[in-house]
Design a protein that fits this description.
It is a single chain. The longest helix is centred in the last third of the chain and has 16 residues, at about 525-540. This protein folds into two domains: about 15-40 and about 65-230, 6 Propeller (Neuraminidase); about 290-540, Rossmann fold (3-Layer(aba) Sandwich), CATH 3.40.50.1820. It is globular and about 70 Å long. The strands form six sheets. It has an eight-stranded mixed sheet, sandwiched between helices. Strands 17, 18, 19, 20 and 21 form a five-stranded antiparallel sheet that branches. Helix content is about 15%, strand content about 35%. The chain is α+β, with helices and mostly antiparallel strands. The protein is built from eleven helices and 29 strands. It has helices spanning about 115, 280-285, 340-345, 365-370, 375-390, 405-415, 435-440, 445-450, 460-465, 490-505, 525-540; strands spanning about 15-20, 25-30, 70-75, 80-85, 90-100, 100-110, 120-125, 130-135, 140-145, 155-160, 170-175, 180, 190-195, 200-205, 210-215, 225-230, 230-235, 240-245, 245-255, 260-265, 270-275, 290-295, 300-310, 315-320, 350-355, 395-405, 425-430, 480-485, 510-515.
Length: about 550
């Protein structure tokens, strides 16, 4: 029996994660201040928004970062007391116990979201709170993991566009000397790591369209593949945890199969618990099944993606759904982590989900090719994928649409300034003006990295890669949606492009959801969004060839 649950003592903020010490005597708590930024994957905004304050209460921003810091705390199990472990003025993005005397942490000297891109790995003394940096990189760092005895620390190092979305190389560190060793992951971009014991590290990641689990032996330096699948596990990226001496625990799922608790043993998945019901079966019966698809880009590079097809013969109306990030990837996961693609297929559309340059699963060089060329090589990769489906008779060249959220929203806005082939564009939480995005967003460092330039450069990439500046070349009817509380791609980005299209006489509609952040995810706003999105495509590019488009202009 577990016994009766009892409330613990209060901490100064909200607990985002926790981790047991190796001896079980204390629990590490990751605590975010009341006004700490919320990452884009969780909808953006601030943790303390709302809170029952009067509607007239101003939103205050200052250079002092009051209430925005993240710190590590220690909860003593026996005495049921808490105290902070890290000093004030040090931001702890993530942390884990590391032996009996330290914690391993991802730190920065500022707490804002842009500071995460420049964070480093440090060991923090649990008695004094003093930190010592053991690893820095010109790339992004995440998923810090420490072996139970503290003999080894591991971290994922990658080009990354979003906090919480890491897919890259695994580096192990000696906590005493800081000496590092890069793990040969055999073509897998690691998306989660966890030590099984003091010598064996579980690596989970993506390799192309596959999900792979491997184990690294710190003594021999060898990597052994334990399991692979064309399905997925975890949330945005694959995640799994060591279970005992040889097994793996995870939440397993695919586009057609809802998440279930599973155990991997001897390379085989065994369901432990499933919550599947008739509703899941009905959804699966009307929204198609994904198939892998590949094509050759103009420069000869093979590009991969997923394709969803409704019943019947082609050519079909096609919507290209561009993922966010851009350092992310479409994988065969439940509902593709959203609602738009399954809904469109159920209404009779084919949906292409491309993983162009910048996507995860193909190594760091594949990701890096996009840096300094946003809207260039990736747009070519996407366009050539459409050409491929048209040539195969799958897609109707006269009924093409594009959609995307976040970076995908940028692409849905940008690509229609390069070509008039699309009949409709849906841009969700887009970035459309990189100059104002830099100064209006809470992740201003992102565009510096991706554009490889300073915003003040006269006539530079900040202007040349902005859909707003190129709006004169657009002719495609465009639906823009935004969340009023979005701090990653503020709603003004959608407003700017909407106004730019209006000035050019292009049919456009702007929808701003007052209670939403980065994307639309709450009820009933999501019902409104889905209705508008599907209705928009059906007006401009009906799923059946014999239907006549209806303009609302």
């Amino acid at each position: 029996a577990f016994g009766e649950a009892q409330p613990g003592p209060a901490v100064d903020g909200s607990i985002e994660y926790l981790g047991w010490s190796a001896d079980g005597s204390w629990i590490l708590l990751g605590v975010a201040g009341a006004s700490a930024e919320v990452m884009g994957l969780q909808g953006s905004g601030r943790g303390g928004e709302g809170g029952g304050l009067p509607s007239w209460t101003p939103e205050v921003h200052s250079s002092g970062y009051e209430g925005e810091w993240r710190r590590a705390w220690r909860y003593e199990v026996e005495s049921r007391t808490v105290r902070p472990l890290s000093r004030e003025g040090l931001n702890i993005w993530e942390s884990v116990p590391c032996g009996p005397r330290e914690i391993a942490a991802l730190i920065s000297e500022e707490p804002d979201e842009s500071a995460w891109y420049r964070s480093s790995v440090a060991l923090v003394d649990i008695d004094t709170g003093k930190e010592r940096v053991v690893h820095e990189s010109d790339r992004q760092l995440g998923y810090v993991a420490a072996s139970p005895g503290g003999a080894h620390v591991a971290v994922t190092e990658s080009l990354a566009s979003d906090r919480g979305l890491m897919a890259g190389d695994v580096v192990t560190l000696d906590p005493e000397t800081g000496a590092s060793r890069r793990v040969d992951s055999r073509g897998v971009d690691a998306t989660f790591i966890s030590w099984r014991n003091d010598q064996r590290l579980l690596l989970v990641g993506v390799r192309g369209l596959e999900t792979v689990a491997s184990e690294f032996d710190a003594s021999s330096g060898e990597v052994c593949e334990l399991w692979s699948t064309t399905e997925s596990c975890g949330t945005f990226y694959p995640q799994a945890w060591p279970l005992g001496e040889a097994d793996i625990a995870l939440s397993s799922h695919s586009y057609s199969r809802p998440p279930e608790i599973a155990r991997i043993r001897d390379g085989e998945a065994h369901t432990v618990a499933s919550l599947s019901h008739a509703g899941h079966e009905h959804r699966g019966s009307i929204s198609g099944s994904p198939e892998s698809v590949s094509w050759v880009a103009p420069d000869g590079t093979e590009i991969e993606g997923l394709l969803l097809l409704p019943p019947g013969e082609g050519p079909r109306a096609l919507v290209v759904d561009v993922h966010g990030g851009p350092v992310w990837a479409w994988t065969n996961r439940w509902d593709l982590g959203g609602y738009l693609a399954p809904l469109l297929v159920a209404r009779g559309y084919a949906v292409l989900l491309p993983n162009p340059r910048g996507s995860a699963g193909r190594g760091q060089d594949f990701m890096a090719r996009l840096y300094g060329d946003m809207g260039g090589v990736d747009a070519d990769d996407i366009s050539s994928g459409i050409d491929h489906l048209v040539e195969r008779g799958i897609a109707d060249r006269d009924r093409l649409g594009v959609a995307g959220g976040s970076y995908g929203g940028f692409m849905a806005s940008w690509i229609i300034t390069r070509t008039g082939r699309f009949k409709a564009s849906l841009a969700i939480s887009p970035a459309t003006d990189w100059y104002s995005q830099h100064f209006g967003s809470n992740i201003g460092y992102f565009d510096r990295v991706m554009l490889g330039e300073e915003p003040a450069a006269p006539g530079g990439e900040y202007l040349q890669r902005s859909p707003v500046i190129k709006a004169g070349s657009a002719r495609t009817p465009t639906l823009l949606t935004a969340g009023a509380k979005d701090r990653c791609t503020p709603p003004g980005q959608a407003v700017e492009f909407h106004q730019a299209l209006l000035e050019q006489g292009v049919e456009t509609e702007l929808v701003v959801y007052p209670e939403e952040g980065h994307g639309v995810g709450s009820f009933p706003a999501i019902i409104d969004f889905c209705t508008r999105a599907v209705g928009f495509f059906e007006r401009h590019m009906p799923p059946k060839a014999d239907q006549t488009p209806v303009s609302s202009a």
